[in-house]
Structures are given as structure tokens and as C-alpha cells.
Design a protein that fits this description.
Helix 3 crosses helix 4. The longest helix is centred in the C-terminal third of the chain and has 17 residues. The chain has 319 residues and is α/β, with parallel strands linked by helices. The strands form 3 sheets. Strands 3, 4, 5, 6, 7, 14 and 15 form a 7-stranded mixed beta sheet that branches. It has 2 domains: 149 residues, Medium-chain alcohol dehydrogenases, catalytic domain (Quinone Oxidoreductase, Chain A, domain 1); 141 residues, 3-Layer(aba) Sandwich (Rossmann fold).
Length: 319
Amino acid sequence: MKAIRVHQFGDPGVMKLETVDDLKPASDEVLIKVKAAGVNPADTYIRAGNFGARTLPYTPGMDAAGTVQAIGMDVHRFKANDRVYVAGSVSGTYAEQVLCKESQIHPLPNHVSFEQGAAMGVPYATAYYALFNRGHAMPGEMVLIHGASGGVGTAAVQIARSRGLTVVGTAGTDKGRELVAKEGAHHVLDHRAPDYLDQLMKLTGGQGVNIIIEILANVNLGKDLKLLATRGRVVVVGSRGTVEIDPRDTMSRYADIRGMSIMYATPGELAGIHAALGAGLENGTLRPIIGQKIPLAEAVRAHEEVMKPGSYGKIVLTP
């Protein structure tokens, strides 16, 4: 089979398309024929050697969707030809085949495309975990979602809207703002506009927002703390550097800064998250947005694209 392999950490160019042996499932594993693989910023951090532990060489990728090709003797929930999406794997998803534990795969409804399935694992699980497990969001609260046009952002907009929150989303391009509005945000702001923070406070009647889902904390966290209502929470989903804050802003608002990574979710939490996400796929409240489909052989370009500003939906690789 064809797979992207990384033999040394470094820039995107260290990823090479190679021919490797076909995979075979162990007794507790499922072999999946990959139809699409999701590309996440975390994949680039791992490839660069800046995040997580990987033994070289390895195949990148945590998300995918496809059909079950074979199962181990101890697997009981899935059978050959089942449509599934992958959230984590044993072997890496940037390949024509992927091995997973049974707990890492989930049913993919027939009306959901494989490309959309490949957008589920990290983005939607992260958005759900940020909103509810870490942010403790409640119906009726107001949530600000920074970078709401990207993979995690659009997921957070859809999930929050479906659960009765008032949603404010930001994006830096006209195309991105149109998408955020289409996906259900009640209010959409241009985070490049010099007065967008004033606009936000006017929307809240000067009270501030209850929750902020922060995609780029190194740019926004200091400002976020001044936007919170009393007992507000900032959930840090992403950051690409350091930032200076005034701790008094947390004191005066009795506010929390809560870091998160979906990698720290427990098996029980993940089971609950994907049960909720599966229901959302079935009833149509969750609709992953695909921004770009890039051939597997061009994984280098995908890693360059996913780090560019002005994100729009999810980037997926197609074998």
C-alpha cells in the first residue's frame, strides 16, 4: 500500500510517499480502507518534533474515514464493509490502510461523505470537549468562538447552536464570515477590524460573554480576559507562542483560564463525546465543512495549507 512516512523530524518536506507492506489486524484491531484522512495543526507539530512522542519512522495522522476491510477475532461491534470514521489509530491515517482499536472507530451514517467523516475526530471531539467537559457550557449562555471558520471553529459553532447557546463567531475574511453565519452563529465579527472588541461588548450589553473558545491564545488571551462576564471561562484550544496577561482581569471577574487537549480525555469521556457526535451526524445538526481535498501524495502541501491564516473548513487527504 501507499503511505506517507516520516523518517526524521523537521519541515513538511520530511514527509515522503512510500510503498509499504499491507497491514494486518491483531485480535483486538480493525483494518480500515482509508477513503479520506483529516489534516490537523497538531499533525504539523508532531512532524516538527514539537509535540507528543513518536518513534521514527512513523505515518502521520489521527483522523480518517473509510470502510472496514478486516477485523480481529476479539472485535464484535463492526464487520467488513461497515462505513466508519476514525478518531485515533494504531498505525497513522495518512495511508491507504489504517489499523485501529475498536474504541477508535465510530459508525458513519450513509448520508455523510467520507471526507466529512475524516473531519470528525480531532476537530469535533475537541470542540465538544472544550465546550462541555472543560467549559461547562449551559443553554442560554453566550459563547465567543475565535477563528470560527476553521475545522474546530465550525464544529464549535454547530455544536453550541444545537445546544441552545448564543453564538458569536469571528473570522478574518468575507468568505469565512459568510460560512460562520451559514453554520448558525447568531452574530459574526471580523477579528481584523480595529473595533471588533467594542462591537462584542455592545452585543452583550456591556456584561461580557460567559465562555470563550480560544484557537490562538498567544494573540488573543490578554484581550479575552477583558471580555468575560462574571464567572466567565476561557478554554484554550490552541496557541502558537507566549502571551502577556493581567492576572487582575481574572480576579475582578472571578474568571477561569482552562487549558485543554483532546489527548487528555479519558476513555469514558471519549465514548460519551463520540456518542453525542454520532447522534449529531445522524440528525443533521453536525455538518462537517470541507475546505480543501488534497491528494495523499501532496501531504507536504496540506501541511503548508493548514497553518495559513484565513482558515476555511477542514483539509482532507484522499488516497
